[in-house]
Please model this.
Amino acid sequence: MARPLPAILPEMPAGVVNSIGNSTAALTFRTVPVRAAVAVCVHPLLYNNMAFTDGMEGASAAAFPSASLSSLHHTSGGAALKFIHAADLHLDSPLRGLERYEGAPAERIRNATRQALEQLVQLAIDEEAALVLLAGDVFDGDWRDYKTGLYFISRMARLQEAGIRVFLIRGNHDALNSSMKHLTLPGNVHQFSSRRAETVTLDDAGVAVHGRSFRARKETEDLSEGYPPPVEGLLNIGLLHTSLDGRPGHDVYAPCSVDGLKAKGYDYWALGHVHTRETVASGSPWIVYPGNLQGRHVRETGAKGCCLVTVEEGSISEVEFRDLSVLRWAICEVDATGAEDGNEVVDRLVAAVDEEAGEAGGRPLAVRCRVTGSCRAHRELADDREKWSSETRARSMALTGADVWIESVRFETRLEIDLEAAMARDDALGGLLRTIGEVKADDEHLDALSGIFDDLQKKLPADLARGEDPLDLGDRQLMRNALEEARDLLVARLAASGGDQ
Amino acid sequence: MKLLELQLIAFGAFTDCTIDLSGGTEGLHLVYGDNEAGKSTALAALTHLLYGFGQRTTFDFRHKASDLRIGGRIADGQGEELAFVRRKGRKATILSPDGDPLGDDALAPYLHGVDQDGFRRMFGLDHAGLKEGGREILAGRGEVGESLFAAGLGSAGLLRDVRQRLEQEAGDLFLPRGQIPRINRAAAEYEAARKIIRECQLRSQDWTDLEEQLEEAEREGERLQEELARHRREKTRLERIQRLGPVVGALEKAEADRAAMGDVVLLPDTFADDRRNAKEQLKGSMETAREAEAEIDQLEQELEALEAPELLLGARAEISRLHEALGEYRKNGRDLPLRIGEQQEKNEKAAQRLEEIRPGHPLAEAAALRPGARQKGRIRTLIKDHQKKISGMEATGKAIREAEAELDLARSALAELGDPPDTGDLQQAVKRASRLGDIEKQRDEHDTKSARGEQVCGEQLKRLQGWPGSLPALLEAGFPAVETVERFEKKLEAAEEQAKQTTAEIETSRAGLEEAERGLKQLESSGAVPLEQDLVERRKHRDRGWRLVRRAWEKDDVTGDEIEAYSPGRPLAEAYEHQVAQADDVVDRLRRESDRVSKAAMLTTDIHELGLKITSLTGRLEQEAQDLAEINGAWETLWADHGVSPLTPREMKGWLERVARIIEIAETFRSEQEKSKKLSEKIEEARESLGAALTAAGTPALADDESLERVLDRAEQALQQLQGVASEHAELEKRLKRQSDLVARKRQEAVDEETGLEQWTAEWERALADAALDTDLQPDETYEVLESLEKLFRLVDESDQLQERIDGMRAERNDFEAEVRQLLEQLGPDLSDLPEGLELDQAIQWLHTKVEAVGQTAARRSTKEEALEKEQARLRKARSLKTTAGETLEALCRQAGCSSPEDLPELEELSREARSLDQAIDNHRSRLAEESAGRTVADTMTEVKEVDADSLPALVEAAGAQITDLDQRRENVANERGQLQERLKTMERERPATEAAEEAESALARLREAVRRYLPVRLAQNLLSREIEAYRERHQAPLVKRAGALFGTLTTGSFATLATEFLEDDKPVLVGVRPSEERVNVEQMSDGTRDQLFLALRLASLEMHLSNNAPIPLVVDDILINFDDRRARAGLTALAELSTQTQVILFTHHRRILELAEDSVPKNELFVTELG
Model:
């Protein structure tokens, strides 16, 4: 066990207290020494019982002289300082939509979010980062298993051994998650208060970190407004969980404007909440969403990881993205126009998947394939989509090894010749097609037809209709699509010649 | 659509075969072909024509795939016709008959949306499809909806397959009360995983509660630990006091006792022992001395009593040796006479044998006869040599005789052949002639060439115009060079060209002139053109007027004449005004008509200039004509010298070329003549030299007309013959020489061998003599003699060996006896008791016994002597010890400070007591020091004295009980803590719920996919069933009625019609109705009847379809083969009936069908094509 770290505590000089200017803080300040003393007594310095319950934050600076901080890291004055900015870990929330099948790389991506965190920790150690900033949503709101919290603690302890300090704010998911409120974090971790914004200064590193946690799931106010003014002479970092002025696909939380953030005079805004990586502003100040650490479903495609920020001579010289994900998600769109048969379509699919896999840098890849276009192969595909899905999986595996997980193959091809002619004919098949057309066009008819799925509906869990890829039998569009598929299926099978003449 | 014509241009086995299908309005077209005639090909061609060849074809065995072509002519309902050709390919496969692409959708207006599959399914009828239809009707028990829909679709098996497959797929995915289908399973797995998640999740409260408990336990543990330590310390102190109490007491007593003893000489620990040892030593040594003296006396007396004879004892070894040799001595005595006898026997035998070999020779001298090993070897070698020599001599003699015979033969052959001929001249002549090669043919070729050249030359010369002379004259003529001719040609051309150009220029100028004149005239024809000149004139006139006016005005001297002259009939002022106006008018016109004015001026100038130009050109033309004439004159002159009147230079160029060609030919044939002549000379020379050589060789002389070739042949033959004789001669001479050499060599060999034999004989005799054998012994006798000798000497040797042994034995006996006697003599003094008259051997026996006894007495003596020596040494050592012990005692007395050793024990006791007390004091003190845990001994003693010794045990026991109690409590707390830690660790390590969550997500994904799959399948299944029912409802009445009528026809009245009935489950099914109203369900029908039922349904559906849709030809492939004749006829009738609605093309292999058709279908509806 390395030398235990003294707790990093918010510096509470009179000025700061005054600027916050609220009597509760003063009261808290008075009560703290006693509680802190007890805490130190009970926990032999390893754990510092702080910060996950409001009102506990703060302790006597005299108990842990800030001078001792300088002995931890970066004693050489001129060397570059590095810090890591990550957000939205959603620890232990499972990957969604991956149907297991023979040969899929299930083992390699087990506990993917944990593996990603492990890599984050390793990166911090390898890069000798001074701080790690976690901008909210460490945990997933739906996830109640306390072991997840224990795991997080163990990783933070590892950073502590390496002398790396961690700053985190709670995001909407963390606020939702009552289970993780009582975690006892190691002494190197500072969690910001949810009552008001705080500032922690690290004179030795030349950094001031400002932050505020979410108090409740829905923070509808602009939290950034209450952030303290920058500390002169230090690099000022703001840690904030926000949707800014709105980001598609993300709920509006802690709304604020880019201009408002810029006006604060900080050097770096470490944001969280939005899962897509985005550099909102680069320099004066930097405003960065690192995106989430590990994509968890097919809507979170591409490289996922954290930002490694280098500070030289008191200002930010580089913000570098590092891919830490264990599994990459991708959507392969393939145009099947002109394909003669199913095999040709699969050829194109597999080639596209292979190309995508080549870009994943050795990571397993989860791919959703979409096939569009009108082609002669449509009939063969419509006849047995499952067979062609399996074929695609098998062939991808043969080509790329066990690195690719075909999440699903969506065949959205059309018949090369249109159905009008067949529909227009007054014969048995034409009649069938006309009937299907009528049903599709008529909501009432459609609803009546949906009745045949009542039995099915009873068997399905409610979760199926929720989430990223909902499947709700009451959805008319779903039924219409299914009808089209049914039509194609019938055409493919009934319009065959039925023998070899 | 109707197919009018099917052209198998290049397809399968067909090339340019046309099937005419245009007959009738629509018509029943029967295409008949035997097996192999290509019926199937034609059938396939029909589909390919309309829908293309597809990717692969099996019909490219005769024509390449890319060459495959099928042509056709089709017509639509309105009589619009299209003739086209189909080729194999991906794009642009429809071509016009001329080969232009028509576009791939050119047939669309004729096909009415029926694709290839639809065409095959609905408009193709074959036997297999019919059988399948029958089977499916049975399988569906005649269910009306399905039967009708299947017939409408055209394929019964397909519909059934599709429905079964959909049902299968739906069932695999979901069953409302199943567990195995994928949806059911995935939903269950999802729930199971959710359950595991709930179970696996660790509640934060559980964790923190435990943590708090752990903290509490840890605090309690620490408290107990401290208390325990305190009690342990107290107990230790009490125990120490208890332990040290007796020690303190003992210490105090020992110190008092010691003080009471005062001063004591402290003797060393070993003192008493030393003293006792010295006393005992003194006593012991005195005793030992006494014992030793007594023993010595005893031993000396015993030794006196033992005496020993010295001589006898000294000879003990000798006696023993002789005693041992006694056995041998006795044995020799027995053996000796036996060996002597043996030897005598051998000698006798040897004497006998010697007598045989050499009578009279004494045995004692026999050794002289013994041959040595070397001599024997030599004799054997010589015997072998002798045999070799004899056979060698025989072989040589034979060889000489043979060689001499050969030699004689060679000699006579050579004599017969005579002298060798001389071939030198002939050979050379032939060689030279051969080197010339086929020279005569070459000459003939030259001759032919020169004759042909001469002929050609003559002909050419005859054709050369304007040459009156001969060929030689031509060759010598030396006509002008071509270059000269060309120069003239150019000159003439240039001159002619110049003249022509000038003429043309004149023409042009004249035309220009005429045009300018015409222009001017034209210009003037529309009114006079005012000229600059006119203005000048007018002005001049006006000015004249002005001058008059001025004069009249200023001087008034103008006469009326002048005025009249200026302007007749007008007053001056008026005239002047008029003139001014006139001048102005001219100016105006000049300005107004400036175009015309300038044009007129230009034309006028042109006319003038052109006139001048024409005059100049005419002059030049004349000069040029003169030049031309001069050149022509020079040309004529040039040729006049050669007597040739020339044509134009260009023609003369050709003429000269012809001349050059003639000359060339002439030169060639002359050179050929020359070559021929030279060759002839060479030939003659060769002939002559060959002739001479031949004559010399004695062959017939040269004939005059004999060609060189023939002479050469003859000469070569002769040469060959002569060379043959010469080589034979040489061969013989070689042989002669070889044989005579051989004879000489062999004779020499014979002589050498003779000498060798003589040498051998000498050596042989010498060898015999050396071996002491008769020198006249022959080699073959010698072996036997040698053997006899060997046997003799073997006997002699054996006898000698025996003699040697006998001698040895005698010598041994004598030696032994001599030794015994000498011994007896030597021992004389000690042998007083030797008995008289003993043999030597007995004497030794006696001596041996005697000396053994004497030896034992001597041994006893030496033992006693050793004992005596030992006793004497013991006595010496005892005396010395006694002295030492006395000295030691004296020294001890001095140390203890007393005079007598008797006082010593008392002093020793005092010293020991004092020492013992000192030791006890030391021990007690050091123990106190050890156990007082750092305090001084004095402090410890004080501490001990402070406590009441009697209450100590109770105090210690109480402290112990306290400790046990605390220890137990502490252990309990530790256990509790361990358990808590263990539980926390277990909790942390328990399977995280994440795996179950992943499994739940996977199950959800599976479920989602399966549901996605299930929806369309279930929908398709449902919709298809509904549609079948709807179809039945729409079409049942008319279809069943029409199909019933057709069924009646097809079964030729076996059934009257069809009807529907309901089964138990209310499903309507088809039944056949007999003319007797009897109803027959499909299960009861025969296979064939069910086929006909399906055919009836198909035809009825088709009729219904055709009544609403545009017609498409129905292609029927031999469906009637399993019908009996009556039903086949009925089938044909039904098809003929259908053919009023659409074209029906019936392919068949069976002539019977053809005959039946011709029999049953009206002529104007049936059209037959025979293939092959």
User: Anything to note?
Assistant: Residues 708-770 of chain B form the longest helix (63 residues). Chain B has 31 helices and 13 strands.
